[in-house]
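Q: What does the predicted 3D structure of Histone deacetylase look like?
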Amino acid sequence: MAIAANYLLEQERAKKILIVDLDVHQGNGTAQIFATEPRVFTFSMHGDHNYPLHKEKSDVDIPLPDGIEDAAYLKILFEQLPRLIDQVRPDFIFYQAGVDILNTDKLGRLKVTLQGCKTRDKFVLETCKQNQIPVAVSMGGGYSEKIATIVEAHANTFRLAQYLFFKFLYHSGPRVLPKLLLG
């Protein structure tokens, strides 16, 4: 995300970038890289007691208590993201969609369900679309015992993106996208 954000800024394809990091770990890398870059605003919702123990300073950090569940997690996100978009007025968003927030994750310490994770992704993507802000989504985190749970959570993110941004492809059937890409 940092390399892509720098590229967009250098090529003058974006003037203001918002990084939305919803992985269970603090977005310490982007926070440190962009600490003195006013054109990039970093937002991290992360487990308070999770790695890294030393946290960098994002523009907005929201440390979450161990065991937070869907309703409380989503309430925070639903309040924060629209406010930040109004405040920052980004013309591009990078979204770190970590699935280590899941209640099945061995290391995450949060208790968000698969449905809660899907609701999170739907909200972020819909908010970007409604505000006509391009978004790049990155997978992140995921240490559930069953790899199928991790795959399902990540697949949900991209299913939602396909549905929200490419409805005509979604309704036209699975063969349309390869035809469009291959010519």
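A (community wiki): The structure tokens above were generated from the sequence. The domain at 2-182 is CATH 3.40.800.20 (Arginase; Chain A). The helical segments are 2-10, 28-33, 70-88, 114-130, 147-165, 167-172, 176-182.
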